[in-house]
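assembly run, all chains below
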Amino acid sequence: MRSAPYIDRRTFLKLVPAAGLLAACGSKSGAKLRLALNWKPDPEFGGFYAADYAKHGLDVEILPGGAGTPTVQMIGAGSAEFGIVGADEILLARARGNDVVALFAVYQNNPMGIMAHASRKLETIGDVMKSGTLAIQSGLAYARLLQKQFGFDHVKVVPSPGGDLTGFLHDENFAQQCFIMTEPLQARRKGVDVKVFPVSDLGFNPYTTVLATSGDFLRKNPDAVKNMVAAVREGWRSYLDNAAPTNEKMHALNPTMDAATYAEIAEAQKPLIEASTLGKMTAERWDTLAKQLKDLGDIPQAPAADQCFREL
Amino acid sequence: MRKALPAAIPFLVVTLALEWLVRAGFVPAFLVPPPSAVLQTMIHDWPELFAALLKTSAGAVIGFALSAIGGIAFAVFLSSSRAIQRAFYPYAVFFQTVPIIAIAPLLVIWFGYGMRTVVASAFIASIFPVIANTLSGILSTDPALRDLFRLYGATSSATLWKLRIPAAMPQILTGLRIAGGLAVIGAIVGEFLGGQGLGSVVDIARTQQRTDKVFAAVLLASVLGLALFGFINIVSRLALRRWHASEQN
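ok done. output:
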């Protein structure tokens, strides 16, 4: 047997700092603006990918996220200048001293829902709480609203599997949290007929997929923020008119859904977006949400609505 | 008391420094909670946190015990011949590299929601260091002693039990020390998707942007890791103090 090549101790010790140097080489880029998404590229972010930032003098890098990407903290910490968050997250953040401000609301209506197998013949969202298993993110406000209204004594509550449908497809008595235009479509594709209960039926209707920035960045760079919102608004207009080119771009970044699914979701989400009031928010809606969160005990007091969002 | 003092000093220094950094406004509280807030949460939410700690402990300890037994047995099997080692060792590496968070949804399908998924996750996360360390220990038995056993005509099972495993004890125990911490991590990851316990406390607190509660739960998880570590150290002391330099002072 030939002797194996070996590294003597001195050489090894010399290699260690070299490896450290190599590891330190993941350097940062220049004055780019970063937009942190809270999920992978998909039609929910179509307008952000369609936007022509350069036309508005901006250099924007979109950072795709995943389950649990803490975009609201990233904005507060300055590790992203802009981020996608939910209106309820903004209220929680502000209550914890994280000054985050909403700029543009993509979904005027809450896309969150509970989907169950149609074969169970459930009539209302309350029926879902009467038997079987329910997979939801227990930390979200609507989950506690459900618990308050219906109680969880007769349903087994388990953690949400994110966008994964395996458990749902395997078990007829399994209901799970979903985006009403995304997962139900995928389940139907797999041959399971589903019934969807939108959470907005409960009267819980926070703006979702909201473009936000920190109060600090807004004060220091009002023009950049204004340009960003303008670029995003145009982006969404063009995506609503013609989603195909952007879908192709996003499909390349996130091939887990096929091209046809991109097109279908882009179409299905249109009613939630309401093109006539694209991006706009009202103080009443913020007040309602703040009051709901206060009643649930999530925030100690309802903040003034005009601090939570800025119309640009 | 004198033994605990050296460990208490870094704890106090770091705690006080963190408290000061947050209070002085260098670090916002929503990113790093001040230790005083974590302590308050710990007291206020103690019943919930303690119940979660018990659940996680059960999952981690059972998973750890299974990987200790399974890992040592598998390593003994591997040590029986070069050919077996070549055939099976590469597959043991699978356990080291498997991204537990990625297969956790599958574990839930296979084992259902609850304890079994958590145990499986703790087991997968912690078995590799036991296998690797045990095998390395068994294979590095002093050749002179092996010759001595052969000279006296010892059977291979006698050689295994009387020489190779005892000689490998220091390494086996090192493997178990590493596995203890990994079992806690595995259990918590399992709980993210399939169970109750500290994992779901962390998950919920994170959704609600309660960093203080996240830290309180993480702190309890590390207490659990420390307890496992301490337990193995006691075993190690009992097993090795008569002959191994690492436990004699």
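Confidence is low (pLDDT under 50) at residues 26-30 of chain A.

Chain A is about 40% helix and 15% strand.

not gonna interpret more than that til we talk
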